[in-house]
Design a protein that fits this description.
The structure is a single chain. The chain is an alpha/beta fold. It has helices at 25-61, 133-140, 166-174, 216-224, 228-233, 245-251, 277-289, 294-299, 305-317, 325-329, 335-339, 361-382, 408-413; strands spanning 77-86, 109-111, 125-129, 176-177, 186-187, 212-215, 237-241, 265-267, 319-321, 343-353, 390-396, 403-404. It has a 4-stranded antiparallel beta sheet, with helices on one face. Strands 6-3-7-8 form a 4-stranded parallel beta sheet. Helix 1 (25-61) packs across helix 12 (361-382). Keywords: Coiled coil. Residues 32-59 form a coiled coil.
Length: 416
């Protein structure tokens, strides 16, 4: 990776060592310490896993009764979070003028970063649309044309075998585990296909871009069968059709079934800022149909596949922040609660793949510091009333201790 543009040739060392902004001495040490710790810790856990697995295998083939379950491999992919501690909930402002902060309750706001967090082909995506879900699945399949050719399904005869696309390879990677000593393969985190039901038409519920597309009725069936939380947990990204997003958040996608970091994104099926003659004609036809005719209305509904694809790509590539509930739920006149509690904004700044052989700690350090600066710039400009309300900054993972970062001025003035 190239060094930041602010560095000229005279500043670059001859032995290609990484040059870090002297103003970010604390941040640099913390990031390097965190990455080194994660790398060594993963190596240790992987070795322990291999030993346990070998013991389990020997006992199983020896028909020795075992109390312990099959050893679970350590996670190789870890989210690195940039945490900004703020004085109180009253220190936050609405990112859009004249719209109250309460409107952003449990709604993730996308933050553009210079280095991508993830990319299409690495995440399982669930899209929840207006009923009927199977009709919109067919329409959303038009988004697949904008995928990179490497990600599309490429069927070739190779020894009478078909070579699948990235979706199939991702499913093999994430969706299956094989127990040692057993010939059959069991699915882990099984996703129920709710379209295989007498009340709905039999059809495909996925596209190349979306792992699953569900309608609202299908989601309600999952809730009735107490399968909703488990199904949602099997996806990396959850998207909502803007026409049903508010209803779903209040009645179905409550905090009891969905984790904080997996709060769903709301996207639109067309660009409302553009005047579209085709959409006007379609809306006129839909009105003439009158009440009912859900399937017929859905079949002629207007979708801009390129606009949908660009939104999904932006969500996957960039990071996001969810405003803490205390800032969006409390009464604005309750000054004691709003000003007496420190709050934290937790933003993913990097996804660490410990199995990646090309992983370079110095390069990852630069990427993290660049993303942290972009995150801080966004928050200071759009969400925090004044940077003086920022108490401290930290970096951590889900299993590590919090390590200190430099103050807000040092981060904003850095050459990254």
């Amino acid at each position: 990776m190239a060094l930041p543009k602010a560095l000229n040739k005279s500043q670059q060392s001859s032995d290609d060592e990484l040059i870090i902004d002297p103003n970010l001495a604390i941040s640099n040490k913390s990031v390097l310490a965190l990455l080194n710790h994660m790398k060594l810790d993963y190596k240790k856990k992987k070795q322990e896993y291999k030993e346990k697995l070998q013991t389990f295998k020997m006992n199983e083939f020896g028909n020795i009764e075992q109390d312990e379950a099959v050893p679970v491999a350590p996670k190789s992919k870890v989210n690195v979070s940039f945490i900004i501690n703020i004085q109180s909930a009253a220190s936050l402002k609405s990112p859009v003028p004249n719209i109250p902060l309460s409107r952003y309750h449990r709604i993730p706001m996308v933050i553009k970063v210079p280095n991508r967090i993830s990319k299409l082909g690495q995440d399982k995506i669930l899209f929840i649309v207006k009923d009927p879900g199977d009709v919109y699945t067919e329409k959303l399949s038009a988004c697949d044309q904008y995928l990179d050719n490497k990600l599309k399904v490429n069927k070739k005869d190779v020894g009478n075998k078909e070579v699948g696309g990235w979706r199939e390879r991702l499913q093999e990677k994430k969706g299956k585990i094989t127990k040692i000593g057993m010939k059959r393969t069991l699915q882990d985190e099984k996703v129920i296909d709710m379209n295989k039901n007498s009340s709905t038409r039999l059809t495909e519920t996925s596209t190349e871009l979306f792992s699953r597309v569900y309608g609202v009725k299908q989601l309600k069936q999952l809730k009735a069968n107490k399968q909703l939380a488990k199904t949602l947990a099997s996806f990396d990204v959850i998207l909502l059709d803007h026409r049903v997003g508010e209803e779903l958040r209040k009645k179905i996608l409550t905090t009891t079934v969905i984790r904080h970091r997996k709060q769903p994104y709301t996207i639109k099926l067309y660009d409302p800022s553009k005047e579209n003659i085709e959409k006007k004609v379609i809306d006129s036809k839909r009105q003439k149909l009158g009440k009912g005719y859900k399937i017929e209305k859905a079949e002629i509904d207007y979708i801009d596949p390129e606009y949908v694809f660009n939104q999904v790509n932006s969500i996957v590539r960039n990071t996001s922040v969810v405003i803490p509930w205390i800032a969006t739920s409390l009464n604005k006149y309750d000054k004691e609660q709003r000003t007496g509690n420190t709050i934290s904004l937790d933003v993913v700044c990097f996804k660490l793949d410990l199995e990646d052989k090309s992983f370079d700690i110095n390069e990852a350090t630069v990427i993290i510091l660049e993303n942290c600066k972009a995150i801080m710039q966004y928050l200071v400009k759009n969400l925090i009333k004044n940077k003086k309300y920022i108490i401290s900054n930290m970096i951590k993972t889900g299993e590590s201790q919090s390590l200190p970062m430099d103050n807000v001025d040092s981060i904003l003035k850095s050459y990254y």
